[in-house]
Write a structure and sequence with these properties.
The protein has 14 helices and four strands. By secondary structure, it is an alpha+beta fold. Strands 1-4-3-2 form a four-stranded antiparallel β-sheet, with helices on one face. It is globular. The two termini are 34 Å apart.
Length: 289
């Protein structure tokens, strides 16, 4: 097993502590129990070669120190860590959004240095989208945990090739749709690097070509799996409710979110995160999707 350690300068605000606090309450892909030190530790499958990878992330001033260990392409695994932590995005203009919008300014003060994180890959986000269809989030999280414990790779979610071999006793057509997701992952369609090389519209279109994934699932995969920074969800009811509550019903969503560019997804995730904290949904197992 090889090890690669790199230090990556982060452009713009970032707080590991804030990101860790949010991620620990993210029911769809919550972090496992973390040590008492100031780090984020986890295990994931590299979506380049589907090799299990251990990671340790620490913060050193304005830089992230990333240690990855595994048998696969560790440079690609490091790039994946940067992507799912949103550390590969130039965030130097993010404070400017606060200057243009007092609601986002308040959100940034409440979540200092927060960047969207949670799903290790678009593949895991797609699997979650299937598992969570038409059932309660707590139930879906339980199914995902059992899948990982029984068929995963020592803490990592099952690989696409493993998922293809499973015939699971799941409601409706979930087993069929999981197989479609696994096939797409094997074919490279759900690679984070590949999706991020596309325009947002093209990424959404291609994801929806996978059987069982509609517009809501596609937005989840693109925004929270590939971590596109500048796209606003069109099918997220609770976000719409939060926008109406914060800004009133007189203004259009388009006029409100226009000033969030080029960080519309970041602003949306901030509002959702604060809504969940305020309503106590995180404690009830309903974290932002």
């Amino acid at each position: 097993m090889d090890t690669l350690e790199t230090v990556h300068p982060v452009d713009g605000p970032w707080s590991l502590a804030t990101s860790r606090r949010f991620w620990e309450g993210f029911a769809p892909a919550a972090l496992a129990a973390q040590p008492a030190d100031d780090s984020i530790r986890g295990v994931f499958l590299s979506d380049t070669d589907w090799q299990r990878t251990d990671m340790v992330i620490t913060q050193e001033g304005g830089s992230a120190r990333i240690l990855v260990r595994g048998a696969g392409d560790l440079a690609a695994a490091t790039a994946q860590v940067l992507r799912f932590m949103s550390l590969d995005i130039d965030g130097r203009g993010w404070p400017d959004v606060a200057d243009r919008d007092p609601v986002i300014a308040a959100a940034q003060r409440r979540l200092p240095g927060f960047r969207p994180c949670g799903f290790y890959s678009p593949y895991e986000a797609a699997a979650w989208a299937v598992l969570s269809q038409r059932i309660q989030m707590r139930q879906a999280a339980g199914i995902k945990t059992r899948l990982t414990e029984e068929h995963g790779e020592d803490g990592a979610f099952p690989s696409p090739s493993t998922l293809l071999e499973l015939e699971l006793d799941l409601p409706g057509r979930k087993n069929e749709y999981l197989h479609a997701v696994a096939e797409a992952a094997v074919d490279g369609v759900l690679s984070g690097e590949r999706l991020r090389s596309l325009t947002v519209d093209e990424a959404l279109r291609q994801v929806q070509e996978i059987k069982g994934l509609g517009p809501f699932a596609a937005e989840l995969i693109v925004i929270r799996g590939a971590n596109f920074p500048d796209v606003i969800p069109q099918n997220e009811g609770r976000l719409s409710a939060e926008i109406e509550e914060q800004y009133g019903a007189q203004r259009s969503v388009e006029s409100i979110t226009e000033v969030w560019r080029p960080y519309r997804a970041w602003a949306a995730v901030h509002l959702r995160a604060l809504r969940e904290e305020r309503t106590g949904e995180i404690q009830r197992g309903r974290a932002p999707r």
